[in-house]
Design the sequence.
């Protein structure tokens, strides 16, 4: 049934429906509402899970590494500095092949102290071996959390479900919250492929010498590659029951588009409106929404973008000394495809600044009026300082 | 699409009012979106919250800059906050106030309505004299002034979201619906 819920509540409802056994988290704005809802569900019995209050994000993830090692489905959520503090154990989680789901509410990194949206926190963790899925609205957040458990448990990798601070986490909108029986039919109980068991003692995390470490790492790489196909399979299964699918990328009006905008998160939603408006004026513009970031869907990205004359990537993040991170990844995906379109990189909405329809239209106009992309990212709306 | 901005003070249930209104509008068949001003709330400090409604799904994920209407939960805000900032010409300003504001100039070109929501709240034993609970009566006033959503949708949202003193909140909303004064368009120099 459709209800008006907050983005954070859509996360919490999905976690409840996924019947997780343990939640471990440390509160941080703008993630706080997620764990508040979940602690309420645990207290009122609507979710039969152990809620662990811990003293830091590092401990939150350490506790879940122990939890999932015993074969229990688990959840955590964090933002910004909290995710940064987890960094060491992010590597540990994927290296130990422990499936779990984290909701990551994008928050700018300090200093300056800032609680608003910026994707640099999650993108800085792109090499930690976590699957990453970016979401656009409350419905997609709920659906993606459910898909994330199924996907992570198939390939034994952890999954980060990423959502924008405030523009998504604190926004109320109608969301279809499915019945438990339907979710159970999509997401059965977790059956671990290995676990700590006193009846069958074994040791995890011991010294691994050079003669096997490389093979262990390669097996993670294979699992990550496998996650691409598995995501499509999970979406097939999800669509059969719920009638919705998202795709690793979504192509909107891209077939005959001369310029394709590339977006993630809530900027996608606003860009849909801009593309509709520009199309109505006869502009040949398309939009590619990137949902799956790790593993990077190279094939789908190429299929979507290759026919375009120009590609404009909007990054709400920045890698100092390099540029917008999504633009880098798009360039890397296209660079070996002969005759690929030039990639224009734009930085917008850093630290919670609004990405309005005017900003997106300006990005389109700049791209249209330029023959060659600038060598460096173009920062939108910078003020004189 | 219609955009509504709520003004209030931290602790007055301003964000809750915006959520209740969006739930009531959804029940009445609208697509909705509501969110608070993205910042840090402090008790007593000015706060804002927003509601978008449309017959079509809402794609915009940006702040509200040019609202169609505003709702002011506390008339003392008029001294410190420009409540008509960006308001579209002819838009409604619904104020919780015992009487017409002394200075009508800021409302020139807009439509004004006022209701003594604080007195209605106290009459219905909602809150205290210093902290009356005004958000549910303001929704009753909104329903009358905007002619949407209907009061039964407001009542359903209150029943769903307000577990304590539900009946008193419903009565306060209905009282405000009955008592709100629609002054209408304020012409030049603040004359109505």
Sequence:
């Amino acid at each position: 049934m459709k209800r008006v819920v907050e983005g954070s509540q859509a996360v919490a409802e999905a976690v409840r429906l996924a019947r997780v056994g343990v939640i471990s988290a440390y509160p941080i704005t703008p993630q706080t509402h997620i764990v508040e809802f979940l602690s309420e569900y645990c207290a009122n019995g609507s979710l039969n899970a152990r809620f662990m209050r811990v003293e830091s994000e590092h401990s939150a993830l350490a506790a879940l590494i122990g939890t999932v090692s015993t074969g229990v489905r688990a959840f955590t959520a964090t933002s910004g500095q909290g995710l940064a503090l987890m960094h060491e154990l992010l590597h540990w989680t994927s290296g130990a092949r422990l499936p779990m789901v984290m909701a990551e509410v994008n928050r700018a990194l300090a200093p300056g102290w800032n609680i608003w949206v910026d994707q640099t926190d999650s993108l800085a963790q792109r090499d930690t071996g976590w699957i990453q899925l970016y979401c656009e609205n409350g419905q997609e957040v709920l659906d993606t959390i459910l898909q994330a458990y199924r996907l992570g448990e198939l390939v034994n990798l952890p999954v980060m479900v990423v959502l924008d601070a405030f523009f998504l986490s604190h926004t109320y909108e109608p969301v279809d919250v499915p019945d438990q029986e339907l979710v159970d039919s999509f997401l059965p109980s977790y059956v671990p492929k290995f676990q700590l068991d006193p009846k069958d003692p074994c040791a995890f995390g011991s010294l691994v010498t050079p003669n096997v470490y490389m093979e262990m790492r390669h097996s993670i790489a294979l699992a990550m590659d496998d996650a691409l196909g598995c995501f499509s399979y999970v979406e097939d299964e999800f669509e059969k029951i719920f009638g919705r699918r998202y795709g690793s990328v979504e192509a909107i009006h891209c077939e005959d588009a001369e310029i394709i905008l590339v977006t993630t998160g809530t900027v996608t939603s606003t860009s849909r409106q801009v593309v509709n408006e520009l199309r109505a004026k006869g502009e040949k513009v398309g939009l590619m929404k990137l949902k799956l970031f790790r593993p990077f869907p190279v094939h789908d990205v190429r299929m979507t973008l290759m026919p375009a004359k120009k590609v404009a990537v909007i990054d709400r993040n920045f890698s100092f000394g390099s540029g917008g991170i999504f633009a880098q990844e798009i360039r890397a995906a296209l660079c070996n495809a002969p005759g690929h379109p030039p990639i224009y990189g734009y930085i917008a909405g850093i630290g919670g600044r609004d990405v309005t329809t005017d900003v997106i239209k300006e990005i389109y106009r700049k791209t249209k009026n330029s023959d060659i992309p600038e060598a460096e990212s173009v920062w939108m709306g910078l003020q004189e300082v | 699409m219609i955009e509504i901005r709520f003004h209030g003070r931290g602790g007055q249930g301003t964000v809750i009012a915006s959520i209740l209104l969006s739930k009531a509008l959804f029940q009445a068949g609208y697509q909705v979106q509501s969110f608070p001003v993205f910042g840090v709330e402090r008790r007593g400090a000015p706060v804002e919250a927003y509601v978008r409604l449309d017959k079509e799904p809402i794609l915009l994920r940006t702040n509200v800059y040019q609202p169609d209407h505003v709702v002011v939960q506390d008339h003392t805000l008029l001294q410190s906050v420009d409540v008509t900032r960006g308001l579209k010409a002819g838009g409604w300003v619904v104020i919780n106030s015992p009487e017409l504001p002394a200075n009508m100039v800021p409302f020139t070109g807009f439509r004004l309505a006022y209701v003594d929501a604080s007195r209605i709240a106290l009459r219905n034993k909602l809150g205290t004299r210093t902290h009356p609970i005004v958000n549910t009566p303001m929704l009753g006033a909104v329903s009358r002034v905007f002619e949407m959503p209907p009061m039964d949708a407001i009542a359903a949202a209150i029943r769903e979201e307000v577990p304590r003193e539900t009946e008193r909140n419903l009565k306060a909303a209905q009282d405000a619906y009955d008592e709100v004064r629609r002054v209408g368009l304020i012409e030049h120099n603040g004359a109505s």
The first helix of chain A runs from residue 7 to 17. The domain at 251-379 of chain A is CATH 3.40.50.920 (Rossmann fold). Chain A touches chain B at residues 2, 4, 115-116, 137, 164-168, 170-174, 266-267, 269-270, 272-273, 276, 352, 354-357 (CB under 8 Å).
